[in-house]
Design brief:
heterodimer, A: 915 residues, mainly alpha, 5-stranded parallel beta sheet, B: 81 residues, 4-stranded antiparallel beta sheet, 2 helices, 4 strands
């Protein structure tokens, strides 16, 4: 996005800053999380901070806010940009999340949490200054700020400068001594400071009583004193001026501004009045506005003459007037030349548009209610705005436009609809689409077709979000037939939706074609998120057809793409890691699966992707169980379910986790708990299959087989098998058939069992499935051994049909744990998922029995963090404990492991299997 | 006053705002056309119709931005006039 870097500059010091104010800078050194500098304009708030910065021991970032920053996306983008003036990596993950339009809008708390993690890892003391915080009136942002301030790491503080107290819990922070306040009463010049200012800084020779009279009249208000000094600089009769001024009741700024303005030559007066319509200005902008040249020289002259001109960048490029002075100028201009005001705003709008600063161009057009101009500008800016996730900005603009303007620009209604689809406001999106349709009926035919195709595109997205597959397909095809080829971004997105709809419908070939095309379009448009989602979806269809090798190749391709686009991170990349971990696990590459799961966890934690975490912890549970650690397995699966429960994750993410838990219970010998689940399941007695909960059906069949009801299981499995076959879902068939084999075996029906197993193996062999079979344990091992014998008998009998199977079957049999290995899997008591604490974010195994005194939970956590290369300070931050406590834990760990150093501790922990 | 009653009155409320210090008449436009009168004891009386509460708060913010101490805000509703 086009950032106005002047917003990030600490306003440079000018000579009027030169009064030292130790009584205030001293207060600012206090180390509280929040400092509030709250006073009306002209009290020297910003100036005070400028003189404090060189004295401050910490790094300072600066952000000057304006009304446009009420858009959360824009606010946090600037907030992070300010941090990145310090360290380009700070907030990179949060920024990536902000700039990914296709993910559902992340809650602000998530963005802030990610930022806080980055700040916690920062090795510097930091003060974040937010100037003009009173411009913020978005309640969501105040809440996010409250959260930020409440959770700031010790070495970071926030300084808010505002004209009125912000709606934040100031009383609470005040009571807890977490708030430093500097208010108007503190900021007023004392008589000594006033005298120093008037004589030393402004160079006036005044008697003590004259200085005191001015100070009394201005009541220590710095802007008033400054203006008074400016007025006096040209006066012959200072004593006369002072007595007239102090004797007047007129508003001090009126009195003095008039003095100052009237003493300027006419061209300068015009310059001041006309440029006052601008929030900030450069020489070039002033030239355009005033239709003259040489503005830069005037600006420098004004700055030199101290005419309330504030340099924004210290490079004499961008300036603004002091707010008070600008207000006076504007009110005079409005009174004397109301028509000029409109012409000036129009020229300013043109200049900004011409220079690519669209938000400013639009703001000027809206100020003078030139809606037609505003609409045309918004049309240009809408797509970039959507790309940057600035939905609030877009909707704020659109809300101001009258209905007839919107109808004359149906493209704007479509932007509104798009923003609403992303925010999942489907009814409102639909309404905007209908309005656009009505509006389109009256516009020229050549423009109509393009807009109709966009309406269809957005309609397809709405339909898919409503699970209306046929309508998605219809609309997406319509859109793609008419969308111009250069609309790569939108075409890619529609193609992805169409693919998903086909996939849902079981039209796998069509789905694949769409995903391939969406990948291409996403790459061509530089839209990593669409490209990666398309790749992940394409790989998923490959897996549906049990083509695991091509799925793995796709995942690797996607990960290379992700690598290529660094440091941009698309959240979709997480699914490449998890899905690849799935494939590797199936191939019995447990270490490989582990690596990818860890990478996925790392990324998810950074980006707070809850749904993905549910997937990952399920995978982790399965992995840990296979590695012989049931305790860690149950901990992980409970964590997955707890997350799903806390965040109301949709059922197709939860179902596999529920099923995994049942599988673990059965494998762990806890039939009672598994049966309880089956008994309580709402699926047990329904006839129609709910596709999104397939895994739970498989779990039911497992439980029934184990509980001596194989017939009931077989009935359900037959239904599942028919469904899988009719939709060409080979992977699912393998899952169903191998359970059928086990159910037949449980019923004592050996030949049916062999037949089902054979069908399953024939389908599984090309994909190299291993864990699906091995995870079923001893009954499956026996079944496959029998099958091996049967195949040999058949081969001897001259039946060559299954000759290619034996090597695969041997490989499977070899993968089963030997009886010795099996004994190490100890049973642990079952526990409900609500009983699990989710304080610990990391994975651990139970300490080995060879430790005389086992490591505590906390000590294990500390050990893992040492293993991860963290310093004591970082460990303290992460666990939210004191550094001295960390030392204590480390000493305990050394004691229990009988070692003297971190390196020895890690080595010993590995020996003992603790790490 | 009940909520309904308050709502029925929300249109066309006339407000009088008293400030410390004398404000020049050119500010009238700035304060959405409110009339500006200066009293002999150095106070300004702004008075006029305010469409709604948001507009009132906007006015108060403008006053605060000028650094003028606020003395009083009073409302005359339709019946009292």
């Amino acid at each position: 996005m086009l950032l106005l870097t002047t917003k990030l500059h600490v306003p440079p010091r000018t000579r009027q800053n030169l009064v030292e104010r130790p009584r205030l800078t001293q207060q600012l050194l206090a180390d509280r999380p929040l400092t509030l500098i709250s006073a009306p304009p002209g009290f020297g708030k910003t100036t005070l901070l400028q003189s404090w910065i060189p004295l401050s021991p910490c790094c300072v970032t600066w952000l000057s806010l304006d009304a446009g920053d009420n858009d959360p996306a824009r606010f946090w983008t600037y907030f992070i940009a300010a941090l990145q003036t310090l360290d380009a990596q700070l907030g990179a993950d949060a920024l990536a999340l902000l700039c990914t339009p296709q993910t559902q809008l992340a809650p602000l708390e998530v963005i802030v949490t990610i930022l806080l993690n980055d700040l916690a890892a920062l090795r510097k003391d930091l003060a974040c200054v937010l100037d003009d915080y009173h411009m913020i009136d978005n309640h969501a942002l105040h809440e996010a700020m409250t959260y930020l301030i409440d959770h700031l790491p010790e070495h970071v503080r926030v300084i808010l400068i505002c004209r009125s107290d912000p709606p934040l819990p100031l009383a609470r922070w005040r009571a807890r001594d977490q708030l430093t306040e500097i208010r108007a009463g503190d900021l007023r010049f004392t008589s000594d400071e006033a005298a120093a200012f008037l004589t030393e800084v402004m160079g006036l020779s005044l008697s003590a009583s004259e200085a005191a009279a001015l100070e009394t009249r201005a009541e220590g208000w710095i802007a008033g004193l400054q203006l008074a000094a400016l007025s006096m600089q040209g006066h012959q009769d200072i004593a006369g001026f002072i007595s007239a001024f102090t004797g007047s009741h007129r508003y001090i700024i009126d009195y003095l501004a008039e003095e100052v303005i009237q003493r300027q030559p006419a061209p300068v007066q015009t310059f001041l009045l006309h440029t006052s319509v601008l929030e900030r200005f450069s020489g070039a902008l002033c030239d355009t506005l005033l239709e003259r040249s040489g503005s830069q020289a005037v600006l420098e002259q004004l700055e030199h003459g101290n005419l309330f001109l504030i340099s924004l960048d210290g490079q004499r490029q961008w300036y603004r007037f002091h707010h008070l002075f600008a207000d006076v100028l504007r009110s005079i201009l409005q009174r004397d030349q109301p028509e000029t005001v409109i012409a000036l705003h129009r020229r300013a709008s043109d200049w900004y548009a011409h220079n690519g600063l669209m938000a400013e161009a639009i703001a000027h057009a809206l100020t003078i209610k030139d809606f037609e101009r505003a609409a045309r500008l918004i049309e240009q800016e809408a797509e970039p705005c959507l790309k940057r996730s600035e939905y609030a900005t877009l909707q704020r603009w659109l809300a101001v436009l009258p209905a007839e303007t919107l109808h004359a620009h149906p493209g704007l209604l479509l932007c509104d609809a798009t923003a609403r689809v992303i925010k999942h406001e489907l009814d409102e999106a639909e309404r905007a689409l209908r309005e656009a349709e009505a509006a389109i009926a009256v516009i020229p035919a050549d423009r109509r077709e393009r807009l109709l195709s966009e309406i269809a595109a957005i309609g397809a997205m709405i339909a898919l979000n409503r699970n209306d597959v046929p309508r998605t397909i219809e609309l997406a095809r319509q859109a793609l037939a008419h969308l111009p080829d250069d609309r790569l971004h939108l075409r890619g997105s529609v193609m992805l939706h169409l693919g998903a709809a086909y996939d849902w419908n079981g039209q796998l070939v069509e789905a694949k074609r769409c995903f391939v095309e969406a990948t291409r379009l996403g790459e061509a448009a530089g839209d990593l998120q669409t490209a990666l989602l398309a790749i992940a979806n394409q790989a998923a269809t490959e897996r549906t057809r049990a083509r695991y090798q091509s799925a793995a190749a796709l995942y690797h391709y996607g990960l290379r793409l992700d690598e290529k686009y660094r440091p941009t991170r698309a959240p979709a990349a997480v699914y490449l890691f998890t899905d690849l971990a799935d494939v590797l696990y199936e191939w019995n590459d447990l270490d490989g699966a582990n690596v990818h799961i860890q990478e996925a966890i790392e990324r998810c934690n950074r980006a707070q992707l809850i749904r993905a975490l549910v997937v990952i912890y399920r995978q982790l549970a399965r992995l840990r169980f296979s590695q012989g650690d049931p305790a860690a397995a149950f901990e992980a699966i409970n964590k997955a379910l707890q997350l799903a429960h806390d965040h109301q994750v949709p059922s197709h993410y939860v179902s596999p986790a529920l099923a995994q838990r049942v599988k673990l219970l059965l494998a762990n010998g806890d039939l009672a708990a598994a049966s309880r689940w089956a008994h309580d399941s709402d699926l047990a007695d329904t006839d129609a299959l709910i596709t999104t909960r397939e895994d739970e059906y498989l779990a039911l069949a497992r439980v029934w087989t184990a509980a001596g009801q194989p017939d009931r299981a077989l009935q359900l499995l037959a239904q599942l098998q028919q469904d899988a076959e009719s939709r060409g879902r080979i992977e699912r068939s393998i899952f169903v058939l191998h359970l059928q084999a086990l159910a037949y075996r449980a019923r004592g029906d050996a030949s049916q069992a062999m037949e089902a197993l054979e069908r399953s193996l024939v389908l599984a062999e090309p994909a190299g499935f291993i864990r699906t079979f091995v995870d079923e344990g001893e009954p499956m091992r026996l079944l496959i051994s029998d099958f091996r014998l049967m195949v040999e008998r058949r081969a001897r009998a001259g039946n060559a049909e299954v000759m290619h199977l034996p090597p695969y079957v041997d490989k499977l049999l070899a993968a089963f744990p030997t009886s010795g290995n099996k004994a190490t899997v100890k049973s642990i008591p079952p526990q409900g998922y609500h009983a699990v604490s989710h304080s610990a974010g990391m994975l651990r195994r139970q300490p080995s029995a060879t430790l005389i005194e086992p490591l505590s939970e906390r000590e294990l956590e500390v050990l893992w963090l040492i293993h991860a290369g963290r310093s004591n300070r970082e460990i303290a931050d992460q666990l939210v404990i004191a550094p001295s406590t960390v030392k204590k834990h480390i000493n305990n760990i050394f004691g229990k492991l009988g070692v003297q150093s971190r390196t020895q501790a890690l080595a010993r922990a590995r020996e003992l299997g603790v790490l | 006053m009940s909520f309904e009653a308050a709502m029925s009155h929300h249109v066309c409320n006339t407000y009088t705002i008293r400030l410390e210090g004398c404000l020049d008449a050119h500010w009238s436009e700035w304060f959405d056309g409110m009339s500006i009168t200066c009293t002999s004891d150095g106070e300004t009386i702004l008075s006029g119709v305010v469409v709604d509460q948001a507009a009132l708060h906007g006015l108060l913010a403008k006053i605060s931005d000028l650094g003028l101490p606020l003395v009083a805000v009073t409302r005359q509703n339709a019946q009292e006039k």
